[in-house]
Amino acid sequence: MIHAAVIGAGACGLALARGLWRQGLPVRVFERVAAPSSNGHGFLLLANGCESLRRLGCDPADNLGHPITSVRIVCCSGDVHADYPIDGAVALMRHRLLEALLRGAPPELVQYNHQFETFEWAGQKARAVRFQNGHSHEADAFIAADGVRSSCRLAMGCASTAQPGRVKEIVAHMQHPLLAAELGHRFLKVLDPSGGLAVGLVPLGDNRLIWFVQFDSERFATPRRAEVGAFLEAHFRHFPAVVRHVLGATDPSRAHLWHTVDADASSRWSRGNVALAGDAAHPLLPFTSQGVNTALEDAVLLSRLLKDCRDPGEVPELFAAYERERQPALLHCVEAGRQMARSFVQPAPSRLPLPLMA
Ligand SMILES: Cc1cc2nc3c(=O)[nH]c(=O)nc-3n(C[C@H](O)[C@H](O)[C@H](O)COP(=O)(O)OP(=O)(O)OC[C@H]3O[C@@H](n4cnc5c(N)ncnc54)[C@H](O)[C@@H]3O)c2cc1C
C-alpha cells in the first residue's frame, strides 16, 4: 500500500486526498495556512469538473452549486453578441467546494501551518518532505498541489516562467435577490467591443451572485486597493445600467484584485516519486474557465493510478504515465488562455472574443 503526501489543500490537493482516503489509502495533506479558510470567491464548474467531482463521491447537483444552463454575451451597447446553452455546469463558492471535498475525511487528514520548505532527495527519489515549522514527513509518493506560485516545482528543479498576467481581474460576490432572480441560471458577460474591458455576472443561487471585471492593465492602470471603487466608476460608465448598478452596490473593500499569472506549463511534471498537479503543473489564465476543472481531473487520474499501485518502486513510472496522459491537453489549454487574452486586449474588428469567466 502506497503512503502519499500532498502539499497544498486547495481544490486539487483535497480532491486527490479524497480520492485516496476513500479507497483506504494512507494520505496526509500539508497546507501552509493556519486553518481552513473561506478566502476566494467562486468559479464555474464545467461538465468535466462536475464529472470529476461525481467520481470522488460529491454530487454537484446535491445542493453544492447553482446550475448554469446558458451563456449570454452582450456588447456594452446592449447588443446581444451570443446566446447559447451549456450543459452540466454549476457555479459555486470556492469554500463550499473545499468543504464538500473534506466531508467525511479523517480529522487528521489536513495538517495546517505546514509551509513547504524542501524535499529530502535520495538520488532521483524524495525520501521526505520538510516544512518551515521544522517538521518533516516520509512517504512513498509526493504530490505537489501548491498552486500557481509552486515552491515544490522549484524544488524539483523546474525553473518558473511566471510573469504577471496582462489581463487582471477584480472579483466580488454579493447578495442581490432581484438581480439573482433575473439572471436565473444564466451567466451574463458584457464586453467593450474595442477590447480590454469586460464584466461577468454569475448567479450563485440563494439570492447571491459573483461579479468579475477583467481589464487590460496596459490600458487601464491597476488600481490600488483604496482606488477600486473609483476605477470601476470611471471605466464602466458606458456599460449597461445593470452592470453599473452591481458595481456601485458592492463595497469595494470586499472586492479582490486578482493579479493573474501568465506561465508556461512546467517543463516536467514529475521527478521520481514527486508529481505536480493542478495550477502547480499548469497555471491557466482565467479566460479558459478550466483552472479548477482541470485540477479536479488531475486529482481523479492520480488517485486512480495510486490506488492500483502496490509497490513504491512503481510510482515514478505511474507519474510518468500521468504526465503523458495529461500534458498534451493542458499545453493546449495554456495556449488557448493566451490566445483568448490576446483577442480580449485587441479584438479583431469582425469578431468579439468569447472568453468565459474567472
Ligand atoms: C485563496 C485562494 C482563492 C482563490 N479564489 C478563486 C476564485 O475566486 N475564483 C477562481 O476561479 N479561482 C480562485 N482561486 C484559484 C483556483 O482555486 C485554482 O486556480 C484552481 O482551483 C486550481 O487549484 P489548485 O488546488 O491547483 O491551486 P490553489 O487553489 O491555488 O491551491 C493551492 C494550495 O496550496 C497552498 N500552498 C501554496 N504554497 C504552499 C506551500 N509553500 N506550502 C504549503 N501549502 C502551500 C495554498 O495555500 C493553497 O491552499 C483561488 C486560489 C486561492 C489559493
From TrEMBL:
Which of UniProt's keywords are assigned here? Monooxygenase, Oxidoreductase
Q: Name one Pfam family in it.
A: FAD_binding_3
Gene3D superfamilies attached to this UniProt entry? FAD/NAD(P)-binding domain
Keyword Zinc (UniProt): no
Q: Does the keyword Oxidoreductase apply?
A: yes
Cite the FAD-binding domain residue spans from the record.
4-330
Please indicate which superkingdom the organism of origin belongs to.
Bacteria
Q: Which PANTHER family match?
A: MONOOXYGENASE, PUTATIVE (AFU_ORTHOLOGUE AFUA_6G14510)-RELATED
Name this protein carries in UniProt: NAD(P)/FAD-dependent oxidoreductase
Q: Which organism is it from?
A: Cyanobium gracile UHCC 0281
Upper taxonomic lineage: Bacteria, Bacillati, Cyanobacteriota, Cyanophyceae, Synechococcales
